[in-house]
Give the backbone structure.
Amino acid sequence: MLHVTFGASPALIDQVEKEGFASWLNRQIPVSNDSTSVDFFSSRGMDAIDTNAHFRNELNFDAMIWSQLLSQGNQVRKRMALALSQIFVVSLTGMNLPWRPQAVGAYWDLLNIHAFGRFRDLLEAVTLSPAMGAYLNMRGSQMGDPVTGRVPDENYAREIMQLFSIGLVHLNIDGTPKLSNGRPIETYTNADVEGLAKVFTGFNLDYSGVREFPSPIPGPAVPDVRLVRQPMTSDPSRWNPPSSRSTHSLEEKRFLGTVIPAGTGPADSLKIALDVLAGHPNVGPFIGKQLIQRLVTSNPSSAYVARVAAVFNDNGRGVRGDLGAVFRAIALDPEATDPSTAQNPLFGKLREPIVRFAQWGRTFGAQSTSGAWKIRDLSPEYLLNQSPFRSPSVFNFFRPEYVPPRSQAMANNLVAPEFQIANDTTVASYVNYIWRTVEDNVYWYDDIKADYTYFLDIADQPLKLLDALDLALTAGQLSEFSRVTILGAIESISVSSPADQNGKLQRLRQAVILIMCSNDYLIQK
C-alpha cells in the first residue's frame, strides 16, 4: 500500500483491510484531481499583481506543493504525478518566465490530470507546457537561417528522446539492451536530434485574452497569470507582439526513420513527431521500469519490467499507453505484493526525502494552522536535501542508473538511484530534520502541526504503540533488533498514568523519530 500512497493513516489502513487492496486501488485510480495549484493560488490572492510580487515569489510554490503532498486530495493520483515529475523534469531553478510559481504549479496540475490517462496525451501536454517550454528552451525556438547561421534549438528535441520517451539504447521488452556485436544499439543520432528540433520551432506563449499591467515594483510590465496556464501556441497572431509570419521550419524533417515532408506546418509536424515517439517500442520498458523504480524497487527483475511493458503496449482492450493500467500493473504485480520480497536483500529502495516527509504528514494528519502552509525551499543539504520541482538539472535529483561507488550495490551489479543524494552530511541532516519536525521545534516552517491523537491514546501501552507505528510507517517490517531497541527506548520514558499527556507525547515522539531514522524504515520493501 505504501508503494502507491505517501502515507497510511490508521483510518486508511482499516479501510483497505476491509475492502481489499486491489479493490481499493481500482476505485482510487479513476478519482479526479480535487486539489489544484490554481485553487491554492487563487483562493489566497496569489494571482494578484500587487506589491507582494506573487508573480516571482517562489515560496508560494513550496507552500502549494507541500500542502498537497502532506495533506490534500487524492494521494494515489498525486503519488503517480510525483513519480512522473521525476521523469518529465521541470524545475524552478533557472527558469526564465514570469509567474514561475504558477507556471510550475500549472505543470504539476497537468501531471495530475494525465497521471492515469494516455501516455501520448501526457507527452503532448508536457511539450506545450509554458513551464517546459521555458525550462528546456522550446519556447521561441526559430527555424534555421543560413544567413546568420542560426539553427533551431536542440535542447528539447534531445531530452524528449533521451529522458521522456525512448532512452539512449534500443531495449527488449524486459528493459535489457538490444545488442549488435555485443554492444548496445543507440536509438538516435545527432542527425535525428537536428531533424526533430525543426519540429519544435515556431511555438511560443499564448497571449490570447492576456492583459499586461504596470509592475507594482521596479521592473517591466507584468502579464496576467493566464499566460503561464495556457498551452503554448504555433499561431503567430496569438504571440506578443503578434508576428506577420511563423518562425516554424517548413523544411523537410527527418528523424528516427520518419520523414515529414517539406511544407508541413507546426501542428501537423508536432502530431507526427509525438505519434512516432509515443509509438516507439522502447517506451513501455523505458518508462515502465522508471515508474517501478520510483514506486516499488530500484532493481526490478526483467520479468517484472516485461509484464509492465506489455500492459503499456496493450491494456487488454487494445489501448496503448494507458498509464492507469500501467500503475495498476506495477502495484499489483507479484513482486510488489508477495510478502517474501521483504526478505529479499536485492529488493526495495531507499525512501527519498520528499516521500519521508510526505509520509509523516499523511500518517499523522498534518495541517497548517494558518492555512498558508508556510514551508520554505527544503532542498538545501542542511534541510531535507530534496524538494519538489527544485531539481538542480533535467536529470532529477538522482538518475535511475546511479550506482554508489565502492558499495555493495556496485559489487552486486545493482543500481541505487536515491543514494545519489545520500552522503555523510545529508544523512545527519535528515536525522536533525525529522527530530525537529516531530518535536515541533522547527525554524523552516512554523505553522505545520500534526495530529497525534490516535497514537497518543495508546501511548501508555508501549508495545501496542510500537505495533501501531510499525504498521503505519513500515508496513510491519521493523526487524526484531529494531523493535527491541525502540521498545526499550520508549519504555524508559515515564508515563505515570493514561492521563499523563506530556509523558505520552514524549514517548510517542521518541518512537516516531527512532522508527523514521531506522534502516528498516529508510529502506522501503
Summary: Residues 105 and 341 are 37 Å apart (CA to CA).
